[in-house]
Design a protein that fits this description.
Number of domains: 2
Number of helices: 6
Radius of gyration: 21 Å
Bound molecules: zinc ion
Strand content: 5-15%
Largest sheet: 4 strands, antiparallel
Helix content: 25-40%
Number of strands: 6
Length: 235
């Protein structure tokens, strides 16, 4: 089943391809952090709000244990690396870069560094971010939702088969436009584990139709194409 020869991209040296060492994958992430058009939206205390390539906003927290809100399990992820080498302009050999935990003296030093101007998102995007996060705070911490999907009268949720009331939180599939309870969708998504979620009906890779149950604030609607273009053809 796991035949190397069946790979769609033949690789003449597959027998000798070395496993990526931790150091290699770390430098690989540094390259990605530099090449991807990540931008800093805001910085407040130990928190850095980073605009990712898809418009999602991730929160990097420089505390004793450095963390990021993105789903990437690699530590440090490219957003953390971005904060270190782009926003704070640390040299590549700075010892803080590869540390999972920071000592109080290191934290003080990092947080006292100025923000590199060229790491910042455009003023328009930063304004948008402040508006949207202020709305989110006013709305009890929930990310404001653009046009809410409303189920049709009497429509049943394809997961639990219950009728969806007008006051219930629902999401819709961007591909087939079917509406489903947000709660039912999130349960299904969790059951997909590491695989990316698909629509329960049409099996298309899940793209929300207007309403997104994801926890990230997303600014893609305000980012013009020029801002989103990546420098290289990297994945
Ligand atoms: Zn991250
Ligand atoms: Zn349901
Ligand atoms: Zn669908």
């Amino acid at each position: 089943m796991e035949s190397v020869a069946s790979s769609s991209t033949p690789h003449p040296h597959h027998h000798h391809r070395p496993r990526l060492t931790a150091a290699q994958s770390f430098s690989d992430r540094i390259i990605r952090a530099v090449r991807h058009r990540l931008r800093l939206l805001h910085r407040s205390g130990s928190l850095f709000f980073v605009l990712g390539a898809t418009g999602n906003v991730y929160t990097v927290n420089l505390s004793a244990a450095v963390s990021c809100s993105c789903p990437d399990r690699a530590t440090p992820c490219k957003h953390i690396i971005f904060v270190f080498i782009r926003a704070l302009a640390l040299p590549l050999d700075d010892p803080c870069l590869s540390r999972r935990t920071l000592r109080p003296c290191q934290l003080r030093r990092l947080l006292s560094l100025p923000t590199a101007a060229d790491s910042l998102a455009t003023a328009t995007l930063r304004d948008r971010f402040h508006q949207i996060s202020a709305q989110a705070r006013a709305g009890g911490g929930r990310i404001p939702r653009p046009p809410t999907v409303v189920p049709e009268e009497g429509a049943a949720c394809p997961v639990c088969l219950e009728e969806m009331g007008r006051e219930e939180r629902v999401v819709s599939c961007g591909a087939c436009k079917n509406v489903i309870h947000e709660e039912c969708f999130l349960a299904w998504k969790r059951s997909c584990r590491r695989r990316s979620a698909t629509c329960v009906l049409c099996r298309a890779r899940w793209r929300s139709g207007g309403d997104d149950p994801d926890k990230y604030l997303n600014l893609s609607a305000y980012v013009n194409e020029e801002d989103m273009v990546e420098d290289g053809g990297c994945t």
